[in-house]
């Protein structure tokens, strides 16, 4: 009887251990591609768009917010303008920079296919003129005295100080830039050390506000009707109910699409992004 109980115990231990290994492998197979994708995309954008030091970005921006990043090793190819991230030699993600498109993860297509795509090419950046700094933004680049617009300069300065002050307890703010525009004029701006007004920074959901503003301009000019069906090619096949989704519904996030915005492994949002 004693031997039988020992055997049953051993079977249960082995079964439990095997099950744990299987669950761990299943989770790693789904989560680590997200971790490597996050590292590759973030470092690519920070290196080739913001022109920041990737070592510093990884330590300050990536590791603190992405626990999977601690298992990731990464490399930057400055000639090819790519960032590659690997985990345990089994999972790998690669992001590439393309002029006019920023950085893109290589997923489902080859690098050659992606490089063959053509995007809007912006005009070369204009040479900075000393005179522009003296002309108020947006016509030029200079700020205006906030007092001229009825804003208390001391209170504004205090708000900027608060934005960059780190709390004694809790998470760090790590504020990089603050720009204050009031009544169409620039009345205040400040940047953390190593950052400046010409450095593009990842905006994440702040881009939604810019997108909505641009759409609003097109609507005002009669170039766009947000009540019409959204022009998403894969939705236009016969019988696809998504074909009736309007641009207005997409912008309000009320399209009815099955989507869960949770930023953790195995959820829709990170699968979409990485």
SSE layout and pairings?
Elements: H1 2-48, H2 54-62, E1 72-77, E2 82-87, E3 91-98, E4 102-105, H3 111-116, H4 153-164, E5 177-182, E6 185-191, H5 206-220, H6 247-251, H7 268-273
Antiparallel strand pairs: 1-2, 2-3, 3-4, 5-6
Helix pairs in contact: 1-2
Features:
274 residues; alpha+beta; four-stranded antiparallel sheet; 7 helices; 14% strand; extended
Describe the structure.
- With 274 residues, the chain is α+β, with helices and mostly antiparallel strands.
- Helices cover 36% and strands 14% of the residues.
- A hairpin with a 2-residue loop joins β5 (177-182) and β6.
- α1 crosses α2 (54-62).
- It is extended and about 90 Å long.
Strand tally is 6
The SS-based structural class is: alpha+beta
* Terminal-residue CA separation: 54 Å
> Segments where pLDDT lies below 50 for 5+ residues?
none
The helix/strand order is HHEEEEHHEEHHH
Number of helices: 7
| Overall geometry | extended
Helix fraction bin: 25-40%
Placed side by side, the strands forming the largest sheet appear as: 1-2-3-4
The averaged pLDDT comes out at 86
Share of residues in strands: 5-15%
CA radius of gyration: 25 Å
């Amino acid at each position: 009887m004693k031997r039988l109980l020992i055997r049953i115990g051993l079977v249960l231990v082995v079964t439990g251990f095997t099950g744990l290994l299987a669950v761990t492998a299943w989770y790693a197979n789904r989560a680590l591609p997200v971790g490597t994708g996050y590292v590759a995309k973030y470092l690519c954008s920070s290196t080739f768009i913001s022109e920041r030091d990737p070592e510093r970005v990884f330590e300050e921006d990536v590791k603190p917010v992405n626990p999977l990043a601690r298992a990731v090793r990464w490399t930057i190819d400055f000639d090819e303008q790519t960032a590659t991230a690997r985990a345990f030699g089994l999972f790998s993600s690669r992001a590439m920079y393309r002029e006019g498109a920023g950085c893109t993860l290589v997923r489902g297509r080859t690098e050659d296919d992606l490089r063959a795509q053509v995007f809007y090419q912006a005009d070369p950046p204009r040479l900075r003129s000393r005179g522009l700094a003296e002309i108020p933004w947006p016509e030029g680049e200079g700020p205006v005295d906030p007092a001229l617009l009825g804003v208390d300069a001391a209170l504004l300065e205090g708000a900027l100080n608060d934005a960059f002050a780190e709390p004694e307890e809790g998470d760090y703010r790590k504020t990089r830039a603050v720009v204050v525009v009031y009544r169409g004029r620039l009345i205040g701006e400040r940047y953390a050390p190593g950052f400046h007004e010409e450095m593009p920074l990842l905006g994440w959901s702040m881009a939604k506000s810019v997108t909505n503003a641009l759409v609003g301009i097109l609507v005002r000019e009669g170039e766009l009707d947000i009540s019409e069906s959204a022009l998403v090619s894969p939705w236009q096949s016969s019988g696809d109910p998504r074909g009736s989704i309007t641009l207005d519904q997409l912008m309000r996030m009320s399209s009815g699409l099955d989507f869960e915005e949770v930023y953790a492994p195995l959820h829709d949002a990170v699968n979409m992004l990485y």
